[in-house]
């Protein structure tokens, strides 16, 4: 994968969007130029069964029409069923060697890392990119860790200059430059786009 694909990495599920149609938000974000999309349908009120799969397919179809990689959070079986462009897993999810074996060498595999040990494992098992955070306090994940700032992000960028890094957690239009200056190739955002009054302008600001 190319580093620039992480520039504006939009993460969304139906539970992240209030009072509006999630697919409309995704369409606006794609049209404005997001560079990667992660389907993350988790938490209270998340879709299940056929509704879950159908929503994922709708998101995937829109991503394909814009040529934007469609990444599935955690659910490897769904990613394989839909022939998604890749998966993103956390440290509590499936082990990286297993993920890579199931997905194959031609798919994108991303992993969240929070320590140098986890970073070394990601390098060893040839992750395509790592997600580092939460950089700032976030309300998008009920089980989010305490904000870590950019110290580890900077260390990771220095240790693995060839490994693409996306920063996540509490990132807004007003603070996204900080993780980029610390070495991130891009920022992953949920609320900043889902709750924006002008999705197109928000995405454009991130791209600038």
TrEMBL record:
Look up the record and name the pathway of this protein.
Answer: Cofactor biosynthesis; thiamine diphosphate biosynthesis; thiamine phosphate from 4-amino-2-methyl-5-diphosphomethylpyrimidine and 4-methyl-5-(2-phosphoethyl)-thiazole: step 1/1
**Binding residues for Mg(2+):** 74, 93
- The entry's keywords: Magnesium, Metal-binding, Thiamine biosynthesis, Transferase
* UniProt GO molecular function: thiamine-phosphate diphosphorylase activity
Can you quote the record's cofactor note? Binds 1 Mg(2+) ion per subunit.
Membrane-spanning parts:
none
What EC number(s) is this enzyme filed under? 2.5.1.3
For activity, the cofactor(s) needed are: Mg(2+)
Q: Which reactions is this enzyme annotated as catalysing?
A: 4-methyl-5-(2-phosphooxyethyl)-thiazole + 4-amino-2-methyl-5-(diphosphooxymethyl)pyrimidine + H(+) = thiamine phosphate + diphosphate; 2-(2-carboxy-4-methylthiazol-5-yl)ethyl phosphate + 4-amino-2-methyl-5-(diphosphooxymethyl)pyrimidine + 2 H(+) = thiamine phosphate + CO2 + diphosphate; 2-[(2R,5Z)-2-carboxy-4-methylthiazol-5(2H)-ylidene]ethyl phosphate + 4-amino-2-methyl-5-(diphosphooxymethyl)pyrimidine + 2 H(+) = thiamine phosphate + CO2 + diphosphate
CDD domains given for it? TMP_TenI
EC top class, in one word?
transferase
Residue ranges occupied by any Thiamine phosphate synthase/TenI domain in the UniProt entry: 8-193
- The answer to whether the entry has keyword Transferase is yes
Q: Which residues bind 2-[(2R,5Z)-2-carboxy-4-methylthiazol-5(2H)-ylidene]ethyl phosphate?
A: 138-140, 170, 190-191
User: By its UniProt entry, which NCBIfam families does this protein fall under?
Assistant: thiE
Can you tell me which family this protein belongs to?
Belongs to the thiamine-phosphate synthase family.
Q: Which PANTHER family match?
A: THIAMINE-PHOSPHATE PYROPHOSPHORYLASE, THIAMINE-PHOSPHATE SYNTHASE
| HAMAP family, per the entry | TMP_synthase (MF_00097)
Q: Tell me, what does this protein do in biology?
A: Condenses 4-methyl-5-(beta-hydroxyethyl)thiazole monophosphate (THZ-P) and 2-methyl-4-amino-5-hydroxymethyl pyrimidine pyrophosphate (HMP-PP) to form thiamine monophosphate (TMP).
* UniProt-recorded name of the protein: Thiamine-phosphate synthase
Q: Which gene encodes it?
A: thiE
């Amino acid at each position: 994968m190319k580093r620039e694909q992480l520039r504006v990495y939009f993460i969304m599920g139906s539970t992240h969007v209030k009072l509006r149609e999630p697919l409309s938000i995704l369409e606006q974000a794609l049209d404005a130029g997001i560079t990667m999309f992660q389907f993350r349908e988790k938490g209270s009120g998340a879709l299940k069964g056929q509704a879950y799969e159908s929503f994922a397919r709708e998101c995937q179809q829109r991503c394909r029409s814009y040529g934007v990689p469609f990444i599935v959070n955690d659910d490897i079986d769904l990613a394989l069923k839909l022939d998604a462009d890749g998966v993103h897993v956390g440290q509590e999810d499936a082990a990286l060697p297993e993920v890579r074996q199931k997905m194959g060498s031609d798919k994108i595999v991303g992993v969240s890392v929070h320590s140098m040990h986890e970073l070394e494992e990601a390098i060893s098992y040839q992750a395509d990119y790592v997600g580092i955070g939460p950089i700032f306090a976030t309300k998008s994940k009920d089980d989010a860790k305490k904000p870590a700032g950019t110290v580890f992000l900077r260390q990771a960028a220095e240790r693995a200059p060839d490994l693409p890094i996306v920063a996540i957690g509490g990132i807004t239009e007003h603070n996204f430059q900080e993780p980029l200056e610390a070495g991130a190739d891009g920022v992953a955002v949920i609320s900043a786009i889902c709750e924006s009054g002008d999705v197109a302008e928000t995405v454009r600001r991130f791209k600038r």
